[in-house]
Design a protein that fits this description.
By secondary structure, the chain is α/β, with parallel strands linked by helices. Helix 2 packs across helix 3, helix 2 (29-45) runs antiparallel to helix 7 (97-115) and helix 14 packs antiparallel against helix 15 (348-366). It has three domains: 24-115; 131-327 and 377-410, Rossmann fold (3-Layer(aba) Sandwich); 331-372, no CATH class. The protein is elongated. The longest helix has 20 residues, at 306-325. The strands form five sheets. The protein has a six-stranded mixed β-sheet, with helices on both faces. The protein has a two-stranded antiparallel sheet with strand order 1-2. The chain contains 16 helices and 14 strands. Strand 10 (275-277) and strand 11 form a beta hairpin. Pfam families: Separin_C. One of its GO terms (molecular function) is cysteine-type endopeptidase activity. Keywords: Chromosome partition, Hydrolase. InterPro entries: Peptidase_C50, SEPARIN_core_dom. It catalyses: All bonds known to be hydrolyzed by this endopeptidase have arginine in P1 and an acidic residue in P4. P6 is often occupied by an acidic residue or by a hydroxy-amino-acid residue, the phosphorylation of which enhances cleavage.
């Protein structure tokens, strides 16, 4: 989808509601303060019932799209706020009564925007799209408002809960501290590279690099189904660079029969496309991996050129490996440790709590173990948007990869 077409799709289909797709802002204290005050002002001065969640979204983008986000008249007409204006009709029957309230609301929003102190790059929570079968083939991740957002796809809300519950059970069985989302070590990887033997440039691009990372895998040869099944169960990450989805080497039924499955990267043509079956739920290999327990699967919606998608794949994997190396240095954890160490808390109980909190935070910041994975770090899907830009054709080949699954963190295992 060319950039122009994706922009048209955003404008014509979503309009002012496109901001609903954005994740909540993270660590925006000024936004929370301004939002709370604005809600009170709109209720007291405009006598409106406010959709507070949508208003917060409007403020979150207003600093960078003020002409769009601050048009409260548009928001009013689209039902973003439900105004109770009966008292105005009693006090003033003139036709401009509602317009006056709209103008006042617009002024209050603009004043609130001017009070915001937000960074140029806002960190947002990831979002998960549950798409209808009639629109799931479109690259929603590449519309302008989502291109820098961390986006995942799942077939249903229930499937999201299943993955999270499965991850929780795995942590309990492994006797590790539970995490809100699944965790993987990108260095614990198995690759299947050019099994058909006719993608020589792809094999030349990745084979030595994978070996340098001490990845296990096969290049230029066809593995058995048993080998692939074992690799998917025993590794955190599975990398496939070949034709299609790799279903010719391990069928959907065999994938779905796995009791445990690695996160997967399927860089073949149309590896993430879903087949429509009339009124039945669409099916695809990418969903088979999710059904088998893969926390995240990155795959292509349509056909791609090998060299461009190789650039994307290498950019994503390299970013994960760099993030793994940086796990020992989280600025937020380090700052919290310093704050606890600087506290002067009197009393036995206070000292005990201080020591415990400081110790735990220090372990989180400095430990590379899977049991102390930092929750402030980016997750695997956060690097996909940036990797699209590495493609020569970012709105064609770069728009093809999408993430199925849930936000998945990066950790470092003790034994790797």
């Amino acid at each position: 989808m060319p950039g122009l077409h994706s922009s048209n799709l955003e404008d014509s289909w979503l309009g002012p509601w496109r901001h609903v797709l954005l994740g909540d802002c993270l660590d925006c204290r000024s936004l929370n303060t301004v939002h709370k005050k604005l809600v009170q002002d709109l209720k007291s001065k405009c006598k409106m019932d406010i959709n507070e969640s949508y208003l917060k979204l409007v403020l979150g983008v207003a600093k960078f799209d003020i002409e769009e986000a601050c048009l409260s008249q548009r928001c009013l007409r689209k039902g973003c706020y439900t105004g109770k204006l009966e008292h105005l009709e009693q006090e003033n029957s003139q036709s401009n009564g509602i317009d006056d309230v709209s103008a006042l609301a617009s002024q209050l929003i603009r004043e609130a925007v001017n009070e915001l102190h937000m960074e140029d790059a806002i960190c947002r929570e990831p979002i998960i799209l549950v798409l209808d079968l009639d629109v799931q083939m479109l690259p929603w991740e590449s519309i302008p408002i989502l291109r820098r957002q961390e986006v995942y796809r799942m077939p249903s809300v229930g499937s999201i809960s299943i993955i999270l519950e499965r991850s929780q059970r795995y942590h309990e069985l492994a006797c590790t501290n539970s995490a809100a989302f699944p965790l993987i070590d990108p260095l614990d990887a198995f690759y299947l590279l050019n099994p058909s033997g006719d993608l020589s440039s792809t094999q030349a691009e990745f084979e030595n690099w994978f070996r340098d990372q001490n990845f296990e895998g096969k290049a230029g040869t066809v593995p058995t189904a048993e080998e692939l099944a074992t690799a998917l169960k025993s590794h955190d990450l599975y990398l496939y660079f070949g034709h299609g989805s790799g279903e010719q080497y391990l069928s959907k039924d065999e994938i779905q029969g796995l009791e445990k499955c690695a996160a997967t990267v399927l860089m073949g043509c149309s590896s993430g496309s879903l087949r429509l079956n009339g009124c039945y739920v669409p099916r695809g290999v990418s969903l088979s991996y999710i059904q088998a327990g893969s926390p995240v699967t990155i795959a292509n919606l349509w056909e791609v050129t090998d060299k461009d998608i190789d650039r994307f794949g290498k950019a994503v994997i390299n970013a994960w490996l760099r993030e793994r190396m940086d796990l020992v240095d989280c600025s937020q954890c380090n700052q919290l440790v310093k704050e606890f160490e600087a506290m002067k808390i009197k009393g036995r109980k206070g000292n005990s709590r201080k020591k415990s909190a400081s110790s735990n935070l220090t372990e989180t910041a400095n430990s590379g173990s899977s049991t102390n994975a930092c929750e402030h770090r980016p997750t695997v899907g956060s690097f996909v948007g940036r990797a699209r830009e590495s493609c020569t054709l970012p709105f064609l080949n770069g728009a093809s990869p999408v993430c199925y699954g849930v936000p998945t963190g990066i950790m470092r295992k003790k034994d790797l």
